[in-house]
Specification:
Elements lengths: L2 H24 L1 E4 L1 H11 L1 H21 L5 E10 L5 E3 L13 E3 L4 E14 L3 H67 L4 H36 L6 E4 L15 H11 L1 H22 L4 E14 L11 E10 L7 H67 L5 H36 L5
Parallel strand pairs: 1-6
Antiparallel strand pairs: 2-5, 3-4, 5-7, 7-8
Helix pairs in contact: 2-4, 3-4, 4-5, 4-7, 4-9, 6-8, 7-8, 8-9
Length: about 450
């Protein structure tokens, strides 16, 4: 194969790889809101990071329980002395010499093997440690649930925002088409001498003013899709296409009162439950700190096997054993008031958790008052905006008919078109605000909704 053929072959292989990569990543994926929510619960990185805290706390429970289990171990020692070991106290010290005599005997090679068992009998800190670890695990699970609710709310908010942006582009394109038609008519009438130049300039200005808005909305959609892909945990290069449409939820009866929302929040809000659980954790921390001032009792057993020999002759040596059992009691007496300080620290942490919990419930009341007011206000604004939109559409149709008959002026038609565009935009904004308020309401109650 010549160099030219090799180059062509390499280029073709590279081109095929690029083509397959483009086909793999370039295909658009249709995504409904429910699919986005399911993907976020499975793939969102923030949820995964929070879930690791649950795994870590489960291991901490095992560590805490191990404090009441026996400790079994093996120990071994192999020594070689260049001289026989020294033992002091052999012989008598005479005269004014206070030197203690010594002697050397025993094997230069020594081996010892130990089997030891320690069983805790009484330790006041074991049960508080276990309970604290279990409570921390439950708290972490509540935090995972709270993270899932927050991510679900963010996904719905981003998805609805994208739907609104698409709808805004559609309305802007419709307005652009109407203004372009008006510009064309104005130019035609100006050429016939039936219109003023100012009408053409006004129509031209309206057309050009709409183009930057459409470009801005297009870029906003790109940013929103990137945010959505990050939330649901898919590849940023994967193209997505929203399959749902913007619609209002079905009427479900009267709106909830502040008291009803507050009761639902107290029942379902996992972050509030986690704050309440901090008080229980602090209580166990107090018991754990106080346990350091109590005695510790344990049982000990050991089986020691040892030997001494010379010239590494372990096969021809004695192996006497020394087994024993016993009990050990450790009573703390004084350690610089460290234990008392730890108990006070734990009590202060409990008081902090109580204050944090009370403050969270007070903030919840203010939050609920705001979201309930937002839902009520946006629901009323939707109805008003819908009526205004229908009126503006009817006014535009009448003005357009009158303009075609030569009864209405170009300025009246322009004003009617602007009023229609504004009414449609206001209605769309009211729908978005209402749906956002509903999402905030569900988040305040600690539920994900539908």
């Amino acid at each position: 194969m010549t160099h030219k053929q090799a180059y062509i072959y390499t280029f073709m292989v590279f081109a095929l790889i690029c083509l397959f990569s483009y086909l793999a990543t370039g295909q658009s994926r249709k995504l409904s809101l429910q699919e986005a929510l399911s993907l976020s619960l499975a793939n969102n990185r923030e949820i995964k990071v929070t879930s690791f805290d649950v795994d870590r706390s489960q291991q901490q429970v095992i560590v805490a329980r191990s404090q009441q289990q026996p400790v079994v171990g093996l120990g071994g020692q192999l020594l070689h002395y260049f001289q026989s070991p020294v033992f002091f106290g052999f012989g008598n010290s005479t005269g004014s010499n206070d030197k203690i005599p010594y002697g050397r005997f025993g094997g230069k090679d020594q081996v010892a093997a130990t089997l030891f068992v320690t069983q805790p009998v009484y330790n006041a800190g074991i049960q508080p440690g276990i309970q604290q670890a279990k409570l921390q695990e439950r708290k972490n699970r509540l935090q995972v649930t709270n993270k899932e609710i927050n991510i679900a709310a963010a996904v719905k908010q981003t998805y609805i925002q994208l739907l609104v942006l698409h709808e805004r582009i559609r309305l802007q394109n419709e307005s652009l088409a109407r203004n372009e038609k008006a510009l064309k008519d104005a130019k035609s009438l100006l050429a016939q001498g039936r219109a003023l130049r100012v009408d053409t300039l006004r129509a031209y200005t309206s057309v050009e003013n709409l183009k930057p808005d459409i470009l801005k909305l297009t870029y906003a959609i790109g940013v929103g899709k990137q945010q959505l892909k990050t939330l649901i945990g898919i590849d940023s290069l994967q193209e997505i296409e929203l399959s749902d449409s913007l619609r209002l939820p079905a009427a479900g009866g009267p709106l909830l009162t502040e008291e009803e929302v507050y009761n639902e929040a107290k029942q379902h809000r996992s972050d509030l439950k986690a704050l309440d659980m901090e008080q229980q954790i602090a209580e166990q921390q107090i018991r754990l700190a106080a346990a350091n001032m109590k005695p510790v009792v344990s049982l000990n057993a050991q089986y020691l096997l040892q030997t001494q020999t010379s010239n590494f002759n372990y096969f021809n040596a004695n192996y006497p054993s020394t087994p024993f059992v016993g009990a050990q009691v450790t009573v703390p007496i004084f350690n610089g008031n460290s234990n008392k300080a730890k108990v006070k620290q734990a009590k202060i942490e409990k008081e902090q958790s109580v204050v944090r919990s009370k403050n969270a419930y007070e903030e919840l009341k203010a939050e609920i008052k705001q979201v309930v007011a937002d839902v009520s206000e946006t629901a009323a604004r939707i109805q008003t905006s819908a009526n205004v939109k229908e009126t503006a559409l009817l006014s535009y149709d009448i003005t357009q008919y009158r303009y075609a008959k030569g009864v209405a002026s170009r300025l009246e038609l322009t004003d009617a078109e602007l009023a229609l565009t504004t009414a449609q935009s206001n209605y769309l904004e009211a729908v978005y605000d209402y749906l956002s308020a509903r999402i905030a309401l569900e988040r305040s109650m600690g539920v994900t909704g539908q």
